[in-house]
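Hey, I was hoping to borrow your eyes for a little while. I've dropped the whole record in just underneath, so have a look:

——
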Amino acid sequence: MKTKTCYTPLAMRLTKIVCTIGPACRSAQTLKALCDAGMTVARLNLSHGTQDDCKTIIEDIRKINQDYGYAVAIMFDTKGAEIRTGVVQYPIEITKGQEVVFSPHPLDNEERTVITVNYDRFYADVPETDRILIDNGEMALDIVDIRADGSVVARSQDDGSIGSRRHINLPGADIDLPSITEKDWEDIAFTCEQKADFVALSFIRNAGEVQSVRTFLEERGSPMQIITKVETRQAVENIAEIIDVSDAIMVARGDLGADLPFEELPIIQDDIVLRCRDRGTPVIVATHMLESMTEHPMPTRAEVTDVAYAVMTGADATMLSGETASGKFPIRAVEAMARIQQRTEEHIARFSRRAEPVHDEREGRSEAAVSLAQASKAVAIVAFTKTGRTVLEISKFRPSLPIIACTNTPERQRSLQLAYGVLPLCVPFADPETTVQNGFSCAKERGFLHDGDSVVILSDIPISDSGFAPSVQVRTL
């Protein structure tokens, strides 16, 4: 007799994976392999590549979704206001103790090595810090002098090299550049045209900047969701207000760890994850998670622990950057991350759920559904939603079993791909009972549910004279 396969807390992965798409994985074949390995959101970085390149990748992902039943979401990442070094023919070699000059324009008569920067007011922001970091700290230089011609003299702490368009951090400085540049506005308009699912905003400093993008999207009738990347000191200081106006948050640890003392980073990461969980806002932990896998087929043990820690603290998703975009082993990196996530989830499923604050009646109903599902040993929670709000409220309470989210548009289906534990399906909506049966049928076709399974469902039921009321039920298929 064939054994029935069903989704149990230990049979699937609940934490999501965001993959950055780049030269190492841009072919349709490799994109399909990333989906097979566990990618739920594809990230396109507008700091690299052209809009035409992005269009081709989007077309390939959408075809994979259509042909193979995936619902991989598209995330665009804006460039943001950043300071970079100029273009050089060959990397400039620097020795420990060497003094170099940073300048927004070439200096013909300068005896020291000159590093050009793409920011005319570089000299004006330098007084707010005491050092210059290249590539998030790969090289550090102490500031020696700020000269009248607008150039800055700095002394290198170590040997190293500086290539073209290397990223520059001025730790703690409030850069006198708009967080959202003219290029960013052009790129955001492009993402609207492409009907992307998420736009991730770089170097945001306050809630007002997020709101300006929200207004921009609303004026264009775009339902695209906003992910705010936390990577500046100002964003950390304004984190409560930023979470209030964002659809999701990304803890972008590379630039964040360069803008603030690195020993503060784990504490800040924990605080942001906890705040997002309290609000039911999806949160992504990103940068350097499996960095060694850009060159090696296996992660370091410290990287394994880092990914596991993000899962144990309740992040909705973890992200791969260079590991998939330019690494030698993009598929293995996704497979490794998925294995770590699933094994960690199996471990934490053995313990009692941490109590989350319940802020209103809706959240109370969602918390009750999670408690009922786990007490009744259901194999899944099935929720029906048009806006996604109900599903996010359930996800907030981190059940150790899947949340099958039935919604009536492909756009909403993909928008739920960041939420912890959610398996989104697109099903036709009709009267409440027909809609429930449509959801069950679709879930069984996908292999998520089977006859005889016990599930908890959140749906509307008819009541006399008043239309419909929300209900929590246990049902056996």
About this structure: The longest strand covers residues 454-463.
